[in-house]
Every structure is written in C-alpha cells, then in structure tokens.
Amino acid sequence: MTQLQGTLSILVAEDDADDRVLLSDAFGESGVEVAIEFVADGVELMSRLAERDASASGVLPDLVLLDLNMPRMDGREALRAIRESERLRHLPVIILTTSNAELDIRLSYQLGANSYVTKPRRFDELIMVLRSLERYWMDIVQLPSSARREDA
C-alpha cells in the first residue's frame, strides 16, 4: 500500500557542488517524482528543518539524504541533532556518502540512521539506487501520519 503518494519531498545535505548536480541529474533520469532541495552542510540542514517546521504549513520533508563529511556541522552531528529533537526525530534519514568505513556505518546506525548507502561510482548505478529508495519509501514502508506530506 502506498503511504506517500505523488511527489516525494527530499532534503539533501551535500557540500560538494558536483555531487549536488549529479544527484539532481540522476533524479531527473530516474523518473522518480521528487521535489528536491539542497543544503550545503549540517548547519543549513538544521536551519531549513526549523524553518519548515515553523512555517504555516509545518510540512517537513519526506526524507533527508545526509552526507557525512561536510564543513561546519558534519552529517554525524546533524543526525544526532535530528534524533534529539522531539519535532524531527521521526524523519527518515538516509546516509548517502562516499565512505564505506565500518566505523562510519556503525556510528551512523547507533545515532539513528534509517539506512546507510555508499554513493555509487557510476551514474547508472546512482539512478538504480535512487529508484530503489523511491520504491522503498513510497511503496513499501508505512510511516506514521505525522511523517506523511499534508497534500498526500
């Protein structure tokens, strides 16, 4: 049963401008209906989440894609802050990073990541990963009503 219908809202924390373009292009090629917004680090991520939560609609993103290695506030710190927040802790957070280090994987799950995905090296593999994420989060899982988009 589809929990999130229509466009999937994704907030991506990624400091590398080339990776942001690559992700944007890959979502476009994947056929996934997505409203994607980018921030460059954990500080911007937390600020954007606070803005969305405080807005009149109060609509948070359906998913957060989080890189680990970013300036100012890295992905680990941002994940910790999200999980410590009563208003944000329900958000699905997927780590999407170049690191495949066991320590990063273990720590991310200990901090409350929902999934850990190592960025594929090839564009066609990235498209397949994004399609899989979309299928999983839109068609397979059931989320609490507070995590669903208001316009669904």
TrEMBL record:
- Report the InterPro entries cross-referenced here: CheY-like_superfamily, Sig_transdc_resp-reg_receiver, TCS_response_regulator
Q: Which UniProt keywords apply?
A: Phosphoprotein
What is the annotated signal peptide range for this record?
Answer: none
**Which residue ranges does the record assign to the Response regulatory domain?**
9-134
Q: Which Gene3D superfamilies match?
A: 3.40.50.2300
Chain positions with 4-aspartylphosphate modification: 67
PANTHER family of this UniProt entry? Answer: RESPONSE REGULATOR RCP1, RESPONSE REGULATOR RCP1-RELATED
Name-wise, this protein is: Response regulator
Name the species this protein comes from: Dyella lutea
Q: What is the lineage of its organism?
A: Bacteria, Pseudomonadati, Pseudomonadota, Gammaproteobacteria, Lysobacterales
